[in-house]
Amino acid sequence: ETGVTQSPTHLIKTRGQQVTLRCSSQSGHNTVSWYQQALGQGPQFIFQYYREEENGRGNFPPRFSGLQFPNYSSELNVNALELDDSALYLCASSLLGGKAYEQYFGPGTRLTVT
Amino acid sequence: DAKTTQPNSMESNEEEPVHLPCNHSTISGTDYIHWYRQLPSQGPEYVIHGLTSNVNNRMASLAIAEDRKSSTLILHRATLRDAAVYYCILLGASGTYKYIFGTGTRLKVLA
Description:
Chain A is mainly β. Chain A has no helices and eleven strands. In chain A, strands 2, 4, 5, 6, 9, 10 and 11 form a seven-stranded mixed sheet that branches. Chain A has a four-stranded antiparallel sheet with strand order 1-3-8-7, with no helix packed on it.
């Protein structure tokens, strides 16, 4: 069983640029959630996708957007990067309707905005 | 979204039991109690979850108060590998299954 993978591992961008982060869900999972984790804080929910449709969103501006593909891989796009966007970005996959809503997290992408 | 309150940090000696408390006084009747932990430089990993009854698995035990306003994660014999940030999370049974993380409890295990 393949776990959740994310790419790239690290990324450095300049303020105002755009970035795309990628996530490959665990096999058989139909839901992916994205979280932002600032240094020393707990992860903050950005949004969730279920069967390619957004299924809920946290308190993040529209410049944070996402996609989920038929093979359940996913992308997080952030436009007009700001310094405060520097964080660890985590994706988590789960099987909605399956076993007790367990989410399986990837190792994260560390984004630094300069 | 119901919130949880945990101590910022705790210490334990290796091979001793650890009791990690969590308060969730605004929990609703359908909220599940989930525990995750985050080892250094890794994403969070599932530990255990429960609704009303106490639960055991190979990693830990979860003790839930009768009024469900608090719970305790029990590590029966702490090892150095258990040093992590432990998060107590409430998860509603409808809509978006999103986790609301707090700042968690940083567990330090002393050799």
